Amino acid sequence: MFEGESARPGTPGPLEGRVALVTGASSGIGLATTRLLANAGAQVHGAARRFESSNPGGAPEEIQGAWTSHGVDVTDARAVHHLVREIGEREGLDILICAAGTNLPERRLEQLTSEGWDTVLAVNLNGAFYCVGAALPYLRRSGGDVVLIGSVSGSWPDAAGAAYQASKAGLLALARAT
Q: 6, 7, 46, 52: which is deepest, by most CB within 10 A?
């Protein structure tokens, strides 16, 4: 059983009635977070590039509860704003989890290209910025919460991953500004 999950089927979870948007929901931390929130009773909207389109029936088997998937690339500011507005106007928004992230195999500074740099920052930092900017009015209205998934590498960078580390340091600054 996951922390926060209702011990008895049919018993309301601690997040019953809350609406959450999780980016990067198709794998890793995003998928695990989606599972925890849905199993704790939240209405979860999972966004990821890997989701073809909105698909309420497309939840992995281990996710119980209210779940809707959305095919959205967080680097597309218009698509992010459209999705957040659609959710916020229809249901409100209480929780935003920015878990979309990427890295490169050629991540060492001497291997890194400008295209690679741009890709990592677009997903890891700009995507979170677009989500927070679009969601903030709804979150303020509901007294909601923002979670940005960072990394210790944002505070202790080295030559092994300059773009990833810069993006995670930027997330730390964005979190402090939020």
A: 46
Residue ranges per structural domain of the chain: 19-177
User: Catalytic residues, which ones?
Assistant: 164
> Rounded to 5 degrees, what are φ and ψ at 37?
-65, -45
pTM exceeds 0.85, yes or no? yes
d(CA 101, CA 145): 20
Contacts of 170 (CB under 8 A, 6+ apart): 121, 124, 125, 154
Comparing CA positions, the residue from 157, 156, 150, 153 lying closest to residue 173 is: 150
Rounded to 5 degrees, φ, ψ at 46 are -100, 125
- Structural contact between residues 142 and 94, judged by C-beta atoms closer than 8 angstroms: yes
Distance of CA 25 to the CA centre of its chain: 7
Q: Are strands 19-23 and 95-98 parallel, antiparallel or unpaired?
A: parallel
Residue 113 has pLDDT above 90, yes or no: yes
Task: Decide which of 144 and 154 is more confident.
Answer: 144
